[in-house]
Amino acid sequence: MRAFRSAVALVAALALPLPPARADEAADLRVDTWRAAGTTVGALVLGGIVAANWKNDDCEICGTNSFDEHARDALKWSHPADAQHASDVIAKVAIPTLAAVDAWRSTSSWGNFGRDVLVVAEAAALTDLTTTVAKSGFGRLRPGLPATPGQGSGAYHSLWSGHSSLAFSIVVAQATQDTMRGDPAAPWVWAVGLTLATSVAYFRVAGDAHWLTDVLAGAAVGSAFGVGVPLLEKRLVRGVTIAPAPGGFALRF
Q1: Segments making up each domain of the chain, as ranges
Q2: Highest-confidence segment of 11-15, 135-139, 174-178
Q3: How far is residue 103 from each of residues 82, 89, 191, 219, 228, measured CA to CA in Å?
Q4: Class of the 26-236 domain?
Q5: What is the DSSP letter of 92?
Q6: Element (H, E) at 83
Q7: What predicted TM-score, i.e. pTM, was given to this entire model?
Q8: At residue 248, what are phi and psi to the nearest 5 degrees?
């Protein structure tokens, strides 16, 4: 019974919201700059090496399922190229630009702005590396293409969506940092950012470049790095402490 009470106390403590950060804490969120920069550059270089040397020209996942087929029929545009172009602009231009603008708005100093941008870049780079490995490893055929040998590895790079994972990693990483510093505008950053990232995922399906499960997987992976990297790099802002609690102990973040 005592162990049960301790477990309940631990779960309750983890569920408590973070108290707002003080101004001096918000101005000095801790980042191991050199390690973060090294991780970012290393992930980008390794991703480039993998992309250049792991050319999977074989269809490993050639079929699909009724869920993806129905989603494709419902969401595909009559001019898919327009949707693909929209996804390029939003994922590679609009979202990174708005994330940088938000970083400056939220920090108002070059040093903290740079730290925010670095953490977002690290999350995006690790997401890109993971996506590159997954694309060649899974070898899933893109929608609307026959499983024909010799059409290039890009045809078998459907799982998972790189545009979706990139968009969600950037949005979630920046919004997480705003939340960690207690920025009152953080809910708006989440709302606008996730709307844009979701539109990228939609356009990838509307553009017939990916199946719906591809973009859902990409969103999940990008979001995981978007949350995980800021938490690790900022040491959970205040660190982790063990505090007494009724019936046992609790972890406080």
Answers
A1: 1-18+238-253, 26-236
A2: 174-178
A3: 30, 20, 16, 22, 18
A4: mainly alpha
A5: I
A6: helix 80-89
A7: 0.79
A8: 160, -125
Mean pLDDT on 201-226: 97
Are 233 and 31 in contact by the 8 Å Cβ rule? The answer is yes
Q: Which amino acid is at 183?
A: D
- Give residue 246's pLDDT: 59
Residue partners of 112: CB distance under 8 A and separation at least 6:
27, 28, 29
CB 75 within 8 A of CB 212: yes
Rounded (5°) CA angle 124-130-133: 140
In this structure, are residues 142 and 209 in contact, taking their beta carbons and an 8 Å threshold?
A: yes
Cα–Cα distance list, 184 to 20, 67, 106, 144, 204 (Å): 9, 39, 9, 45, 32
List beta partners, residue 250. Answer: 243
Q: Mean pLDDT, to the nearest integer, of 32-45? A: 87
For the stretch 67-117, pLDDT in tens is 999 999 999 999 999 999 999 999 999 999 999 999 999 988 888 899 899
Per DSSP, 63 falls in state -
Q: With contact defined as beta carbons under 8 Å apart, do 180 and 216 qualify?
A: no
How many Cβ atoms are within 10 Å of 57's Cβ, its own excluded?
A: 14
Q: Are 221 and 127 in contact (CB under 8 A)?
A: yes
What angle do the packed helices 95-107 and 110-138 form, to 10 degrees?
A: 150
Residues 166-194 have a mean pLDDT of 96
